[in-house]
Amino acid sequence: MASIQIVDMEKHFGEVQALSGVNLEIEKGEFFTLLGPSGCGKTTLLRTIAGFYHQDKGDIYIDGELINNVPAYQRNTGMVFQNYAVFPHMTVFDNVAYGLRVRKLPKEEISRKVSAALKSVHLEGYERRTPDKLSGGQQQRVGLARAMVIQPRVLLFDEPLSNLDAKLRIEMREEIRAVQKSLGITSIYVTHDQEEALVISDRIAVMQQGVIQQIGKPWEIYRNPQNTFVAYFVGKINMLTMRLDEGAEQGLRRATLGNLSFLVPSEGTEGMHEVIAAFRPEDLIEAAKEGSQNEITGILKTVSFMGSLARFELNVEGQEITIDRHRPREADMPQKGAAVSFAVPTQSMLLFDPKTGRRIGKGGRR
Amino acid sequence: MSSGVRTSRLHGHRPDIWSLVIFAGFAIVAIFLIYPLFDVFRYSFLDKVTKTLSLSNWKTFFSKAYYLRAFWHSILIALLTTFFSMVLGIPLAFFTTRYRIRGTNLLNTLSVLALLSPTFIGAYSWITMLGRNGFLRLFFQSIGINLPPIYGAFGIVLADSLQYYPFISLMTAGALMTIDRSLEEASENLGARSMKTFFSVTLPMILPSVTGGALIVFMMSLSNFGTPMIIGGNYLVLPTLAYNLYTSEISQTPGMASTVSIVLMLCASVVIVLQQWLSSRRKYASMLVNRPVVKRLKGIKSLLAHLLCYFIVFFSTLPLAVIVYYSFRKTSGPVFKPGFSLDSYRQIFFDVPKTVMNSFLYSLIAVLLIASVGTLLGFVIARKRNAAVRVLDPLLMIPYMVPGTVLGIGFIVAFNRPPIILSGTATIIVLTYFIRRLPYSVRSAASILKQIDPALEEAGINLGSPPGRTFRTITLPLMQGGIISGAIMSWVTSMNELSASILLYVGKTMTMPIKIYLSVADGYFGTASAMSTILLVVTGLSMFIVNKYFNRGSDTFIAA
């Protein structure tokens, strides 16, 4: 049985539809991420589960229990806040002990549990400190310890790392993941950082304008996006709108863009005259001297050397595309303004319907 | 909605203690504001003789010079006071923020002390200095200068300006200190001389604060009762006129007193509306990247700047010093004798210990009420903005535009007949203190709350703590400093309240400000001085505590 179930949820703030038709099932012990740009409804959904907002329609179940009318303070969810929300007038110990004291646990047990929680977030010895003496990362560790020490039915993370610097973010996300797995508490994690989502999650729900666009494992979300929004939002992707020729041959159909000509999978393109062909920057290969299938030639606009890779921005028939070269060598670098050629393997191409943005062909779900 | 609407309710649809607080807020407004003010309104439209609905009172007001004159006097006094407060306040603010003036903190403290001291003390002190046998008048006479009589417009404007100019100087100084230096530098870099820069960049930036302060001064002066009562003589302004009318109408319906009260309240409302409109307009907030430089002046320029600043503050503190001095003079009845003694203090503690006790006790009870009710209502306004609260919020601000005299008249006409009879009780005095101060307390609690992240309360709720417990264990401790410093300011204003309580007191509920007024009227200056000194010490100590223990700057005092 699912640990958390959201059924047909709707929520609006005034005119703004914050959530519409949201359905979710999260497994016990799963690390589930809500990913999307700001204003997509991910935080609203999280806060509705916590009980800070009340949905207009729909049901929330935790461990099979309908909690629609359970007030926030009785929901037993542990929330980790974006701006830490560490109580500034209490010591680290008192912060972590707060939820246990509310639950009227015996003193010795509180002290034992707080110590264990602080140990698991590497804050042993900080019990007597006050929050103003802690760095942002340390404050968020207190926030994490405080949320998990009450052994909640679900841990809720509201962009917990967005206020930390890049290096600390990477360190902390690994710790969060490790602590969550060792405790086995079901977790819902909200972020707008797609890389963070890919690294940390068991599964991801990508949201936009209050609607869940796709739910899947990180690998599926990246490799098998179901619409152009997901493809765009997670990782970098190139999209070229091409005209389709009539007739298919051996499961392939010819598509043209200006002087360029491609072979794309024909499955699902029946009756269409145009298609969006998408491919990741890292999937392009160098074109052979004698010419390759699906060759793309364009004028090099910018070259950015980024250390482990070099990124080329190309102008192809009036459209911009990005190409990544790994392990670049200075001697091989083309000059700005030069005409350069790459090729897209047919199997790397993802096709989308230009009218609906939906994925078509193999890998597309209907 | 990643930032969401944070003010929405924290949990489901059930009623909680906050519904009760909202209900109590409406009850307070209805019983202690709407009901008495409506009574005043009603009486102004009630014919004195026939007791029927009529415009006779209003006709009298607009046809007799006696009434209209008081109206114009009020406007004139308020305008002159505002003007002179600006004349004193703006240069003081400019010099103390832009140039190095030694002892700026002392200057600020002294001017705030003058601001917070009871208005009637300043007025009374000017009488001792410039009255018929005042020592300053005699001194000027001896060098051949005959000063105009102190009683009347001259005295009121003098005392009011020297009391209220700190509103202007503190607000202007606040604005001057937060202008980004780069803006003035940019002007100079573009070729403007420093005078040109001041008039084209600096002045426009501080103008909202200056006008904001000016409106406060106008409002304070307009509704001030103590100063014109003591020093006004026959020069009547609206508050003193209303008071006189009320005492002369004591056995009849207070028709004319009510009419004058409504006029006074309308004037005050216009000022408040203007002020709200002004403060809702764009303010030039800066990120304070570059604080303005404090320049060092040399030689004669420095001397002149120091002289000017010290002269202004000295003049405003002089009345207070004179009062303290007189309180230690030897007396025999109403007459001062050569030499020093504690006679006056002895007299207070033997003759009227009850009065001193009353002042402390009433203020204490009022402050406890103000702080607790104000904090709860402030919480509701800052955190629970539903339809009811949106209606309640402006209603709670009504006392801002009700001068003390008007509230006093309202209370006495409304609460000396069933269903609520409070006249002659200590309760009615405490309630006036409470109502007059409540909007400040609500505002200040709400603004403290705006600086506390709602996520802290959500964290408490999320960890299993019910709303009441969350408020007690998280919100309240975080608000503590602000609440206490606000409460101390309420304490000071309650201790010094005269305009409403003078209409409501009876012998056994007399307070120090009332006793001071009566002593001055009877010519017992020694007792008046000693009691004034006690009030001054209380005021000064309170200020010191707020400054020292709550680390609040001068802005706390002007918000009060």
UniProtKB/TrEMBL annotation, chain A:
<dbReference type="GO" id="GO:0016887">
    <property type="term" value="F:ATP hydrolysis activity"/>
</dbReference>
<dbReference type="InterPro" id="IPR013611">
    <property type="entry name" value="Transp-assoc_OB_typ2"/>
</dbReference>
<dbReference type="GO" id="GO:0140359">
    <property type="term" value="F:ABC-type transporter activity"/>
</dbReference>
<dbReference type="InterPro" id="IPR008995">
    <property type="entry name" value="Mo/tungstate-bd_C_term_dom"/>
</dbReference>
<keyword id="KW-0547">Nucleotide-binding</keyword>
<keyword id="KW-0067">ATP-binding</keyword>
<dbReference type="Pfam" id="PF08402">
    <property type="entry name" value="TOBE_2"/>
</dbReference>
<keyword id="KW-0813">Transport</keyword>
<dbReference type="InterPro" id="IPR027417">
    <property type="entry name" value="P-loop_NTPase"/>
</dbReference>
<feature type="domain" description="ABC transporter">
    <location>
        <begin position="4"/>
        <end position="234"/>
    </location>
</feature>
<dbReference type="InterPro" id="IPR012340">
    <property type="entry name" value="NA-bd_OB-fold"/>
</dbReference>
<dbReference type="InterPro" id="IPR047641">
    <property type="entry name" value="ABC_transpr_MalK/UgpC-like"/>
</dbReference>
<keyword id="KW-1278">Translocase</keyword>
<dbReference type="GO" id="GO:0055052">
    <property type="term" value="C:ATP-binding cassette (ABC) transporter complex, substrate-binding subunit-containing"/>
</dbReference>
<dbReference type="InterPro" id="IPR003439">
    <property type="entry name" value="ABC_transporter-like_ATP-bd"/>
</dbReference>
<keyword id="KW-0472">Membrane</keyword>
<protein>
    <submittedName>
        <fullName>Fe(3+) ions import ATP-binding protein FbpC</fullName>
        <ecNumber>3.6.3.30</ecNumber>
    </submittedName>
</protein>
<keyword id="KW-1003">Cell membrane</keyword>
<dbReference type="InterPro" id="IPR017871">
    <property type="entry name" value="ABC_transporter-like_CS"/>
</dbReference>
<keyword id="KW-0378">Hydrolase</keyword>
<dbReference type="Pfam" id="PF00005">
    <property type="entry name" value="ABC_tran"/>
</dbReference>
<dbReference type="InterPro" id="IPR003593">
    <property type="entry name" value="AAA+_ATPase"/>
</dbReference>
<dbReference type="GO" id="GO:0005524">
    <property type="term" value="F:ATP binding"/>
</dbReference>
